[in-house]
Design brief:
The structure holds 2 protein chains of 2 kinds. Chain A is mainly alpha-helical. Chain A has 14 helices and 2 strands, in the order H-H-H-H-E-E-H-H-H-H-H-H-H-H-H-H. Chain A has a domain at 2-217. Chain A has a two-stranded antiparallel ribbon. The radius of gyration of chain A is 21 Å and the shape is globular. Chain B is mainly alpha-helical. Chain B folds into 2 domains: 29-315, Orthogonal Bundle (ABC transporter involved in vitamin B12 uptake, BtuC), CATH 1.10.3470; 346-436. Chain B contains 19 helices and 4 strands. Chain B has helices spanning 24-29, 33-53, 57-80, 91-106, 108-112, 119-138, 143-163, 165-168, 192-215, 217-227, 229-234, 239-265, 275-288, 295-313, 317-331, 335-341, 344-348, 353-385, 405-436, and strands at 174-175, 267-268, 392-395, 398-401. In chain B, a hairpin with a 2-residue loop joins strand 3 (392-395) and strand 4 (398-401). Classes of the chains: A mainly alpha, B mainly alpha. At the A-B interface, helix 3, helix 4, helix 9, helix 12 and helix 14 of A face helix 7, helix 13, helix 15 and helix 18 of B.
Chain lengths: 318, 443
């Protein structure tokens, strides 16, 4: 029971972190109709900028400034890169963001090198918040939960309750009409792209000390973020939330409970074959859940795409 | 004798559109067998005589690598260029084909009974088999859904390569020995040159088959489905099946590329399957140009050269390749092939000569400016990452101290002046370009 609680908290942290990335990505998708492959790269940039700033000004100013810089860079990418490629169609746009992701990774390696950066949890938060039967929960994880929930509520409030949010929502669905009403739709798109990438930057700032700040961090999380929004339904904010939490919990639980394929197969009445070591399916029989934890999201996504291509909460089929 | 009045659409003889074989520009349009066959003959001759020019083993390795990339990129373009399907996990089909070939190599009795030459066919069949399984559900729609399924399946198989050790060999991969095959007319493929000719033969055969495929009705329908699936459906074609056929055929040729990889390197690892390899082939294909059949060939040649030659010179080659790729997507979505084909109308109008001077005036300063920029990049890299005390560096055959001001000033000045001249002369080039593309006038 206690272990379940610990895993629930761990999964929640992972899920909310994923959500901070997927929220921006899904907003950008509703806007442009294209998945931004470089989204996780902005997350990485956030972590690296925050590290560099924290050396000079400390963690808290890093948390404040790094996402702003990332957002400005993101807006610049939309204004000078994507808007230009947009005229060629969707596939070149997708390829552009793919190339951008590669280039940002190379750029990060160019500036900071290939090693992990010593970007650590600030001393203020470096203590145990509470412990559940011997499993300590660090304060930084609690902090991460609060930041992500705060951002989610803020985003929800801005999008649904303010005038700016109304215009954004309208511009996502009927850009031409909104333009005819006198709003600057390209500027709105640029703003949404900037805010989306800034959110990814925030995620990078608070994930960097925990998950490590290294050039491969975008790659590790990048494809999982797509998986998340595809499962949740492209363009759906709630779908992104549900899918993020789902993936967070599935992977956490799969890693902490050692469920063996042999046990499952025996339980449903298939006997273990004799001389297992010579059997061509021996690797299949020896599968354990921690082994496949990282590929479970992909299996889930392929299944979702086959049986419900619009995703859990999606309305449209692209 | 044709009735002069009721000939084609009832037009009078003097109004009929005819081709005049004496005019070079009209002769091109006639598609004589000579012109259709010529590129293939030239390609065969080039492949035959290349080893006589580049004799050392490392050059042969580069050419083999190039040939494999050519087949893989052409197979990839069957999807991306011809059927409009963007795949982020195509390395999987080449990889699985390659792994299957490695296993066949290790089945001593069976392998000793077949000549090595036909081994890639098995790779192709395995790639095709996997493509049939995956394609049965992934080709339902093109666009984002297809791209995402391809990514998911790619990640799945790449990840399972570490888990399913029996087939993928875990982290050390699977290795074998190609020389155990039945000798092919006495050739045992012990030497690199023999492998080169085997690979070259396969390049010609596969490229020819893929070209012919693009000219079959199903190849043509793939184009139609790419451009407008709804319209293709109204014509009575199932766009899903057309996509499926393209996907399966592409999987087959990717598997052949994988089989050739197995023959060349005699080892396959997880690296042949992962997303990075899939990304590289996308990069290669797009760089070459997806709009033309020969685009991926150019892309494969250029990329392999950049990869092998540039990576010997600088650690930053991936950075340059990435920049080149991004510039291609932003400014020349047609790729290198598109850039070349842009000049065909100019040549047909006989005005190519008008472009020579403006090109020299703009492109040479631009190239110098870009080289200056590259020098700045290298110097920055050296300044940040070289071991302390190691201040000497060599860029463009010049050795200097990267911690003094002078080299930075020189490189900066070269960059600014080069790019500045290019920028100043660009309007002239544009004008000349427009002039050269306009028919008539003072030619």
């Amino acid at each position: 029971m206690d272990l379940i609680l610990v895993n629930l908290i761990d999964g929640l942290v992972t899920g909310l972190l994923l959500f901070m990335l997927s929220a921006g990505l899904t907003l950008i998708f509703s806007m442009m109709g294209v998945l931004n492959f470089a989204h996780a790269s902005f997350y990485m940039l956030g972590a690296y900028f925050a590290y560099q700033i924290s050396l000079a000004l400390g963690f808290w100013l890093g948390l404040l400034i790094a996402p702003l810089i990332v957002g400005v860079i993101g807006a610049g990418v939309e204004r000078y890169g994507l808007r230009r490629v947009h005229q060629y169609g969707h596939v070149p746009e997708l390829i552009f963001t793919f190339g951008l992701a590669l280039l940002i990774e190379e750029l990060v390696q160019f500036i900071w090198g290939k090693n992990q950066m010593p970007y650590n949890v600030p001393d203020v938060l470096n203590f145990t918040a509470f412990s559940i039967s011997g499993n300590s929960i660090p304060a930084f994880k609690v902090f991460m939960i609060f930041v992500s929930v705060g951002i989610f509520l803020g985003l929800l409030f801005v999008l649904t309750k303010t005038r700016v949010g109304m215009i954004i929502q309208a511009a996502l669905s009927y850009p031409r009409t909104v333009e005819a009403l006198g709003h600057n739709v390209p500027l709105i798109f640029m703003g949404v792209f900037g805010v989306g990438t800034a959110l990814a930057g925030v995620a990078g700032v608070i994930a960097g000390p925990v998950l490590g700040t290294f050039p491969g961090m975008a790659f590790v999380l990048g494809s999982i973020v797509f998986v998340t929004i595809v499962i949740g339904g492209l363009g759906s904010l709630w779908g992104a939330l549900v899918a993020s939490l789902l993936i967070g919990w599935i992977t956490t639980f799969a890693k902490s409970y050692n469920i063996e394929m042999e046990g499952i197969l025996n339980a449903i009445g298939i006997a273990t074959p004799e001389n297992l070591s010579d059997n061509p399916l021996r690797d299949f029989w020896a599968l354990t859940s921690p082994q496949i934890a990282d590929i479970l999201p992909y299996i889930l996504m392929v299944l979702i795409l086959i049986f419900r291509p619009q995703g859990l909460f999606g309305k449209r089929e692209s | 004798m044709i009735d002069p009045v009721t000939d084609v659409k009832g037009a009078r003889p003097d109004e009929q559109i005819t081709t005049n074989p004496a005019d070079a520009s009209q002769r091109m349009r006639m598609q004589t067998p000579m012109i259709a066959v010529a590129p293939w003959v030239i390609a065969i001759l080039v492949l035959l005589f290349l080893p006589l020019v580049f004799t050392n083993n490392s050059a042969l390795t580069i050419m083999n690598q190039m040939s494999i990339t050519i087949i893989f990129a052409l197979a990839y373009n069957m999807l991306l260029g011809q059927a409009g399907m963007l795949s982020f996990g195509h390395a999987v089909y080449a990889g699985v084909g390659g792994f299957a070939c490695m296993h066949i190599m290790n089945m001593t009795d069976f392998f000793a009974s077949i000549p090595l030459v036909i081994l890639p066919i098995f790779g192709g069949l395995f790639g095709m088999g996997l493509a049939m399984i995956v394609g049965s559900f992934s080709t339902r729609s093109a666009g984002t859904v297809f791209a995402m399924i391809s990514l998911g399946v790619g990640e799945l198989i790449a990840a399972s390569s570490v888990i399913i050790v029996a087939f993928f060999g875990g982290e050390e991969g699977v290795s074998g020995d190609r020389t155990y095959a039945q000798p092919f007319f006495g050739v045992e493929f012990l030497q690199q040159i023999e492998v080169y000719y085997l690979t070259a033969a396969w390049v010609i055969v596969s490229a020819l088959l893929m070209f012919l495929w693009s000219r079959t009705p199903v190849g043509r329908m793939a184009n139609a489905v790419r451009d407008n699936p709804e319209r293709a459906e109204f014509l009575g074609y199932s766009s899903r099946w057309v996509r499926f056929y393209s996907f399966v055929a592409s999987g087959f040729f990717a598997g052949i590329a994988g089989g050739l990889f197995a023959i060349n390197y005699e080892i396959l690892t997880e690296e042949n399957l992962n997303t990075t390899s899939s990304g590289v082939i996308l990069l290669v294909t797009f760089l070459g140009g997806v709009g033309f059949f020969f685009g991926p060939i150019i892309g494969a040649v250029v990329f392999t050269l950049v990869q092998t030659v540039l990576s010997l010179q600088t650690e930053l080659w991936a950075f340059y390749a990435g920049s080149l790729f991004l510039a291609t997507v932003m400014f020349f979505p047609g790729g290198l092939a598109g850039l070349l084909m842009m000049h065909v109308p100019v040549f047909k109008l006989g005005k190519a000569g008008h472009l020579v001077m403006p090109y020299i005036k703009t492109l040479i300063p631009a190239a110098i400016g870009v080289l200056g920029l590259a020098a700045l990049v290298e110097m920055t890299f050296h300044y940040r990452h070289a071991a302390t005390g190691d201040n000497e560096m060599t860029v463009f055959w010049t050795t200097f101290d990267s911690h003094t001001l002078l080299p930075w000033l020189i490189a900066g000045a070269i960059t600014i002046i080069g790019l500045g001249i290019a920028r100043a002369t660009a309007p002239d080039l544009k004008e000349a370009w427009n002039e050269a593309n306009t028919a008539g006038g003072g030619a």
